[in-house]
Amino acid sequence: MNEVxxxxxxxxxxxxxxxAFKTLRTNFLFCDPEIKTVLLTSSNISxxxxxxxxxxxxxxxEMGKKVLLLDTDLRNSSIARRFASGRGSMGLSQYxxxxxxxxxxxxxxxxxxxxxxxxxxxPPNPVELLGSSSMKKLLATMREEYDYVLLDSAPxxxxxxxAVTAAFCDGAIIVLSAGQTRARTALExxxxxxxxxxxxxxxxxxxxxxxxxxxxxxxxxxxSHNSEAPKPKTLRHRVKGILSKLxxxxxxxxxxAPEEKKAAEGSDATEADTKQE
Length: 277
Description:
Order of helices and strands: EHHEHEHHHEEHHEHEHEEEH
Helix content: 40-55%
Distance between the termini: 106 Å
CATH topology of the largest domain: Rossmann fold
Strand content: 15-25%
CATH architecture of the largest domain: 3-Layer(aba) Sandwich
Strand order of the largest sheet: 1-4-5-3-6-2-7-8
Number of domains: 2
Largest sheet: 8 strands, mixed
Structural class: alpha/beta
């Protein structure tokens, strides 16, 4: 099998990212043990789907699991460019179209237990390839060979490719970006996955800015090293906003109580005067 140098420095060199992915891994392992092929998708680009896919695959392999990372974003793949120095010209598109054998597109990475199939060249018919019997057969075969098969797919809010592939998977995870993902778009993605018959395992909320002790700020998952990531309001500000709204709801009730009490006292006094007369 081919080998490729893969860059995992965004986890290895960042304590907070490493801990975040370990937490994600722990939650992921609580899923049904029969769930082995999992698709990760998002509403739009730049929401963290690809890096979370890579980070989760690395974290699972690090604990001894045998993992295959399958790049199914045939339209705009970024895994090879960002993590493997542009390697991966041969990939899934060539295999599904019959231009390459499986052993030609399957790569070992520098992390023991983690293999990858890159997306390959952009094909003219990505939906047809991803929905083909060859794709279904590949997932069934890899499901028996690996503990987990993670599919980094195209954003479902933009193209339908992920919904087609999700029909062959055991489950799906939706990646959301705080301050960026629109609620309506996220609901549309959820509904499309449900229509495909794929079980939704949950969502990952990414790019949460949180204020740590001593004034230190960190971003959840990989955005701690991504300068282009959007910067939403801090968790503290969000909580303050919620509390202020709750206070606004409580004040009218609090003001109303004394008025009702005075009215009741006045009514009692009137009744007492009437009885005396």
